[in-house]
Write a structure and sequence with these properties.
Blueprint: E1 2-4, H1 6-14, E2 19-22, H2 26-31, E3 32-34, E4 38-39, H3 47-52, E5 62-65, H4 70-81, E6 87-90, H5 93-99, E7 104-106, H6 113-134, H7 140-156, H8 160-166
Parallel strand pairs: 1-6, 2-4, 2-5, 5-6
Antiparallel strand pairs: 3-7
Length: 181
C-alpha cells in the first residue's frame, strides 16, 4: 500500500489539482477537513464511480484520508479490489493534517458517531432496567439485548447501532453522496 505524509501531500497539492478523498462520516467531515478534500463516506464508497468522474485524470493517484489512517486503509483496499491501483493512503489522516498547521475548513461541531452510540446504548440499558423494575420484569431483556449487542460489537469490530445511527438524517449530507460545508 502506498502512503504519503501530510507535509508531502501539501506540497503536491500546492503544485496543482489532485484528488483528495475524505472517507469519514459527513458529520466528522463538516466539523473539520483538509482544504480541497471531498467527502465520500467509507460505508457508501464507490471506487468505480469516483474513478469515472475524474475527467481524464485516471492515471494520477487518488489520495485517501480519514481521521487517523484506519478507515482510509480500508478505502484503499476497496479501490484495489475494484482494480484501481493508483491510490495513496495519507499517514496520520486529518489529525496529522491539523497538527501540521496545514489549511483546513472548519464547520459545524457535531456529536461523534461513537458518542451517539454510547448515549443511545446507555439510554436503552437504563430504560430496560427502569421498565423492568416498575412495569414488568421482562423489560430487563432490553438491557440484556443492548449488553449483548455491545459485546458483539467489541468482538467483531462492527456496530449495528452505529451503522443504524450513521443513516439518521442528522448524520447525512444530502442526496449527492458528497458533502460540502
Amino acid at each position: 500500500m502506498q502512503t504519503i505524509n501530510v507535509n508531502q501531500l501539501a506540497v503536491k497539492q500546492s503544485g496543482g489539482d489532485l484528488d483528495l478523498i475524505d472517507v469519514r462520516m459527513p458529520t466528522e467531515y463538516r466539523e473539520v477537513h483538509a482544504d480541497g478534500a471531498k467527502n465520500y463516506p467509507l460505508d457508501s464508497l464507490d471506487p468505480a464511480a469516483i474513478q469515472g468522474a475524474r475527467n481524464g485524470r485516471s492515471g494520477e493517484p487518488i489520495y485517501l484520508i480519514c481521521k487517523s489512517g484506519n478507515r482510509s486503509c480500508k478505502a484503499v483496499q476497496k479501490f484495489l479490489d475494484a482494480g484501481i491501483e493508483q491510490v495513496v493512503n495519507v499517514d496520520g489522516g486529518t489529525t496529522a493534517w491539523v497538527q501540521a498547521g496545514l489549511p483546513v475548513v472548519r464547520g459545524k461541531k457535531a456529536i461523534s458517531l461513537e458518542r451517539q452510540v454510547r448515549i443511545l446504548a446507555g439510554f436503552l440499558a437504563l430504560l430496560g432496567a427502569v421498565l423492568g423494575f416498575f412495569v414488568h420484569p421482562y423489560f430487563v431483556g432490553l438491557s440484556a439485548f443492548v449488553g449483548a449487542g455491545l459485546m458483539f460489537a467489541g468482538i467483531t469490530d462492527t456496530c449495528g447501532m452505529g451503522m443504524m445511527l450513521s443513516k439518521m438524517p442528522w448524520n447525512q449530507c444530502g442526496a449527492t453522496g458528497s458533502c460540502s460545508v
